[in-house]
Structures are given as C-alpha cells and as structure tokens.
Structure prediction request, 363 residues.
Amino acid sequence: MQVEQILAFRLARSGLAYRDAAGLAEAAACPALDFSRDAALLAVAARLESLTRERYDAAVDSGELVVAHIVRGAIHALAPRDFALYGRALICEDDGELGRQLGTQVQRLVAEHGFAPTDALDEVAEATKDALGGGRALSKTELHEALRERVGADLMPWCKGCESHHVAPMLWRYGAVKAGARLNSERRYLLDDPGAEPNAAEAIRRFLHFYGPATSADFAEWAGVATPHARRLWADIEHDLEEVAVGERPAWALRDDRAALAAPPAASGVRLIAPGDPYLQKPNRALLAPDSEVRKRLFRPVASPGAVLKDGRLVGLWRVKAKGRGTAITVDSLGRFARGDLEDEAVRIADLRGASDLMLTVD
Prediction:
C-alpha cells in the first residue's frame, strides 16, 4: 500500500480532510494532546467550524468535553464517552507490566522500597479521591499538597525542580486516571464519573480506525502500555483484522476499513495543524516527514512547531508567539503555497488565542 494512500486515509479519519465535525465530541474522537498552551483547543478547532475559546472552556467546565490524564499519563481532550476507555481500561493489572507503564522512576522506587506497583497506584488513587471529595477543585500544587498528607513517604521522592517531596510524576498522573479526575478550564482537578469500564480491546479498534494499518507494537507505544498487555488486547480482535503490506513491513487494518483504505477522500486547501495534534502523533511521523532532517525539525523533544498541510501534504512548519495583545505566526516553507492560502487559517488561530492583531511572516 502506498504511503500517500495511508496518509490520506488517516487524515480523513482524523477529521482533517474537511472541517465538518458534527460537534465537540466528534472533533475530539481521537484524543488531542494538551501538552502546551491551547494545543487541544487548536486541535478541536481544526475539525469544527466556528469554535470559540469561550465555547471550548464552557464545554470543558461542564464535562461536555473531557480534559484529563489518559494514555501515557498525558493530558488530552477527548469525548466524555471515551474517558474510561482511554483511561482506566488501559491501566495494566500485572505488577511487572504496570511498573513498565509507570516508568523507570517508579521501577527504581519499587526496587528500593519493595512495594507492589498495583498497591502503590491504589494508594495514590484513593488519596486523590479523598483529596477531591466533596466537590473540591484543586490546582496541581494544591493536589500535590493534599497527597503529601495522604500518601506514604516511599511514594514521594525528592523533586529537584519543585525542591520538595511529592508523589512520583507518573504515579500521581495514573492515580488521577484511576480516580476519575479531570481538569476544568482553569486547570483545576475535580472528580468525575468515567462510567462503566469498557472492554479495553475496543481501544485497539479505535486506534486502527485512526492510525491503521498498524501493529500491536504501534498501539503499545501510542497508548503507553506494556508490549505483552498490547498483544493480549490485540489477540481479542484478531478476527476483525486483515494484513496490509506497508512497504516491506507487515501491518494490520480493520477488515471493515478495506474500502476506505482503497479509496480515501482527497484533501484540499491549506491547513495549519498545531503541535500535539492527533495527526502529528508518532504513528504518522515517518510517513508525513520521510526526510530525517525535516522530521527532526518538526518533531522536537520540546517546543515543536506545527505543520502546514496543502492538499494533505506537508509544505511548511509554523510557530506562534504572543506579541503584546497580538499574535505573531511565522511559517518556514518546505514546499509551494501562496501566502494568501495561509491568511484565513492564521486569523482563526489568532482569534482562538484572543489576539486583537495578527502578524504573519512567511520565510
């Protein structure tokens, strides 16, 4: 299968071929990473016409749109119906696998103090529920302070950055996942009800819906679960899959997606896709930017730029900065496009950021 065909399929499934999502939940059907200012807001707006910051914030406050720690312990915006699917349902139950899911720092604490990762996570989750009980909404700093009063010292290593002891980062993040905590528009944590825990294998289907053809290893990396855990979930839906050759690499897609893969819709126009967008996540990176130098520029460890797409192809990189009451957007060209094609997109981004002036520079 050709790279262009796969990218066109994934672009359409990501909701970027057209800005025609029926609502916020559909626009966030593939969870949008919210690792930096406005990342999830811009991702949702890329899929939904006429979204404003006020509308987005109101939806986050009401729970119409959930912002929470889910896959990889990272904060994402997602549809409320999927809160449990991408959160609690993907927490490993085996101590060894959970240790890998929680990361090297927690594994070192396990080796040093001899506790079981499952017990540690239960302790932090219960402490989180207690701290947020009674309808309390706490900032990150306030939540850490509350956990210090409720969690054993073995789970609270010294943090040089904070110059204090607090629960190990991946442990408190996954504690929030297990507790069912989400964030409001002021970035304060509060309890919510994620609903009944679904069959975790459904997360594989959703992943392939957005990122197929792929492998169980691709899912494990995207979801932040241990490889054996991913393979067990994968085995539950093998009867729904068919093998698809991606170059010389075998991969699998949902059998029901055969027609959509064979004839994906063509994208048209220029789009400014913000860093953290679902379309810019790991499964798409090598296909979208096959040149290694371009890939290094686009996908940095920190402060990555966004992507300029023309008719679905990567033609530039863009960055945004606040300039007083205005917004400055700088575009680095990688291909051919007209400056005029960028202006409507740039205005949308400036409006969402609440800027009164826009400065657009194309290099």
